[in-house]
Hints:
19% strand; 11 strands; alpha+beta; 3-stranded antiparallel beta sheet; 4-stranded mixed beta sheet; 34% helix
Amino acid sequence: MKQIKLKSINSKRQSDINQKSPASFRGASITIEAALTIPLFFFAVVAFLYLFEISAISTSVKSGLQYAAKETASQKDILPALLRFNTEKLVVEGIGEDRLMRSIVVGGKNGIDCSGSNLWSGDGIYELKASYKIKLPVPVFNIPELKYSESIRVKEWSGYSPSWFHKDEETVYVAEYGIVYHKNYYCPYLNPSIKPVTSGQLSSLRNKNGAKYYKCERCGASLLGIYYVTDYGDRYHSSLNCSGLKRTIYAVKKSEVGGKGACSKCAK
């Protein structure tokens, strides 16, 4: 009788185990899936964010090169041997030391290498190159440092003489969509100095007239958090190609400016 009773109890226990096993296995399966999926999800999010950062750095370096090209073109007597050091200094200045030191560029402000820059003898053309490395702070897969480079060419500025313009009347300069005329071709309003800034800087940033920057109506918001401003403008732009950053300048007789007023900086 005892043997029969033990068999009955064992059979009942086995039946209970068989009934509970599917749910137990399902719970264990969900736990394993969560343990695998959640880290992969966060890894994908981090990778996506760093793709944006890499793109933002590339844009910043291009902007820094443009700034360096503009400054270099006006330096007629720069020695080819000093071109690299001069370019590196200008690129870092154009990007901003703080931006580079907070970036994932290896070496920060010292990680910009312009040794590939050169002057084409006889042509007066500078080829400026900026190389840098990016290290992704991801402690898996042993991802090596990524190498990037940007380049730009600029013609040495040799100056010009405006004497061939309207000799019988004063020549002034107007922008295509400007509402004032300028007496000085080099007026900052006609030749804006473009600087990259981060979205976090915009609220406290002011132009050289002390005015606040507002969102450009043409180019809208930036996906990368990098914007472009000028020294005397009052708008921030998400694209270097925005028409608000470009100037088409015409030399005309003063009598042909129509109802345009005089520039407050150079024509009064």
